[in-house]
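sry for the spam today, last one i promise. struct tokens for design, 352 residues
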């Protein structure tokens, strides 16, 4: 339980079907005491026991270190992917099972279907709230333990059910994407954790021409336009981040497009790689709508994904999640991008 509408409604839905108890994680939330108080009030109103599990040390060692380390390496990480595998459905789930629980329910908008002993992860039916992307690193064992009550619901229906049960103060309280960032934001967090990585350095074009000075590489991500301070007749965009040179590479809009990417650390949810001759839909970030692509094994370290249509601002460090229809097949970390061979003819061809 997080104190939000999704976990609250999940508890309400399951209370009449199971003997349930609530569990709350202490991580690095800036408003931890307020969240704990809110969860305690919600659990009391629902009428269930609440357990508070302190995972702050493990979260710092596993997730915060990965997060800041990725930025220092010029990557743009997705901490939720690692947290779900290692913390929420890892250490946290183990704690709940050790406490005598048989299954673990969360408020994710996704579905798990089991057939012939194999657990299949599917998209939630609400296309706007679908969160299957964030669960793409889970194992078969983890998928087999979870219940996702909201997978067949829309967000509006969730709010409606909460209000029917007397919880009328959830509207406008969506949780933020990165739960451990406080008022200082991303820049302040990284400045505190990265030290000299915040030093200024050159901004150069693809051909090496210096056009400005950046204020610390972690302030930027591939595809970024604002904050560069480079006046010109047309905007500049971040193309690449080179920490070994403390250099930011920029270019024009048409230079942002890629049609091939190398992905590493592949994880296949069924334990076996799919047919390479098939076509798949690949999401290159959580907010990406997905694009048609083919996959090809390069070596033991990774795969090559080739898109049918060039993709804008593919970002190393993010995860490419591979779908076959509604099902999540696998995922891998974007390690390198390959510039598109041809400029897109017009904006209508883009998938963003």
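last one done:
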């Amino acid at each position: 339980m997080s104190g939000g509408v999704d976990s609250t409604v999940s508890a309400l839905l399951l209370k009449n079907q199971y003997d349930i108890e609530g569990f709350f994680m202490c991580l690095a939330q800036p408003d931890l005491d307020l969240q704990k108080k809110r969860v305690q009030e919600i659990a009391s109103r629902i009428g269930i026991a609440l357990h508070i599990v302190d995972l702050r040390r493990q979260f710092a060692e596993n997730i915060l270190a990965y997060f800041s380390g990725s930025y220092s390496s010029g990557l743009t990480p997705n901490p939720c992917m690692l947290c779900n595998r290692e913390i929420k459905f890892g250490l946290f789930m183990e704690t709940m099972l050790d406490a005598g629980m048989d299954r673990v329910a969360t408020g994710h908008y996704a579905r798990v279907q089991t057939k012939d002993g194999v657990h299949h992860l599917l998209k939630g039916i609400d296309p706007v709230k679908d969160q299957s992307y964030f669960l793409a690193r889970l194992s078969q064992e983890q998928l087999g333990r979870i219940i996702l009550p909201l997978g067949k619901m829309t967000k509006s229906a969730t709010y409606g059910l909460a209000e029917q049960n007397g919880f009328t103060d959830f509207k406008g309280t969506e949780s933020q994407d990165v739960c451990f960032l406080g008022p200082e934001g991303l820049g302040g967090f990284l400045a505190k954790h990265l030290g000299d990585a915040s030093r200024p350095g050159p901004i150069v074009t693809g051909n090496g021409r210096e056009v400005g000075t950046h204020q610390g590489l972690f302030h930027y991500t591939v595809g970024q336009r604002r904050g560069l301070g480079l006046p010109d007749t047309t905007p500049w965009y971040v193309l690449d981040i080179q920490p070994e040179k403390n250099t930011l590479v920029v270019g024009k809009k048409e230079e942002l497009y890629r049609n091939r990417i190398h992905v590493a650390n592949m994880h296949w949810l069924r334990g076996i790689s799919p047919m390479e001759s098939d076509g798949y839909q690949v999401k290159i970030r959580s907010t990406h709508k997905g694009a048609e692509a083919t996959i090809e094994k390069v070596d033991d370290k990774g795969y090559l994904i080739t898109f049918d249509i060039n993709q804008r601002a593919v970002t190393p460090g993010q995860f490419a999640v591979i779908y076959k229809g509604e099902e999540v097949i696998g995922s891998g970390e974007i390690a390198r991008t390959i510039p598109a061979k041809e400029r897109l003819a017009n904006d209508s061809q883009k998938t963003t």
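The domain at 5-164 is CATH 3.40.50.620 (Rossmann fold). ok im logging off now
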